[in-house]
Amino acid sequence: MGTASALAGTFLFEPKPNDPIPYGYVTFWATPYILTGIGLLLTAAYRERNSFLRRSRFLVAAAAAPTLFFALFTLYLFPTFLGIYELWRYNAWVIAFTIAVIIGSSFRYGFMGLQISIQNQKLDYTLRAITSGTSILNHAIKNDVGKIRLFGEKIKSDAATGSPIRSSSCGTWK
């Protein structure tokens, strides 16, 4: 029975000769899904009891519903019933609106659980920590250079006088 109705539906919505897709058939199939999706978005937003989740759902509906509704007309209804095929080019403007809603709400309230936050770091504390660490490192390097210089002079003076050098490994005089 299901195959027969699908086959009958295919012959019922025979594509026009110049149509790239059978708009009548696709419109008959896609329109209820798009309208149901928009309805579900709006119903979920209105029925939500939690104010935080309600605002989040309204933002999702504000971003998605206009785009879906506009796309329904430009992609399906106008080509099917009016024969206007080129209005899909204006979908970019509605998508730009959707992106603006997503970005704007992401900074202010968060969008679909994601919130973008910009925080100024206190540069005064950061610079103070960097200079403190740098000064400690500089002091340690200066101490090591001083030790190297001191031991270098000691080795030179011992070599010049011919005094014995104590071996560090076995503790005996050479």
Search tags:
mainly alpha, 174 residues, elongated
In words, what does this structure look like?
- The chain has helices spanning 2-12, 23-47, 51-82, 91-108, 123-161.
- It has 5 helices and no strands.
- The mean pLDDT is 76.
- The chain has 174 residues and is mainly α.
- The radius of gyration is 38 Å and the shape is elongated.
- 6% of the residues are buried.
- 72% of the residues lie in helices and 0% in strands.
Helix and strand succession?
Answer: HHHHH
Q: Roughly how much helix do the residues carry, as a percent range?
A: over 70%
Strand content: under 5%
Compute the number of helices: 5
Instruction: Give the tally of β-strands.
Output: 0
Coarse structural class: mainly alpha
Shape: elongated
Average pLDDT figure: 76
Measure the end-to-end span.
Answer: 107 Å
Uncertain spans: none
Blueprint (SSEs and pairs):
Blueprint: H1 2-12, H2 23-47, H3 51-82, H4 91-108, H5 123-161
Helix pairs in contact: 2-3, 3-4
What is the compact description of this entry?
With 174 residues, the protein is mostly helical.
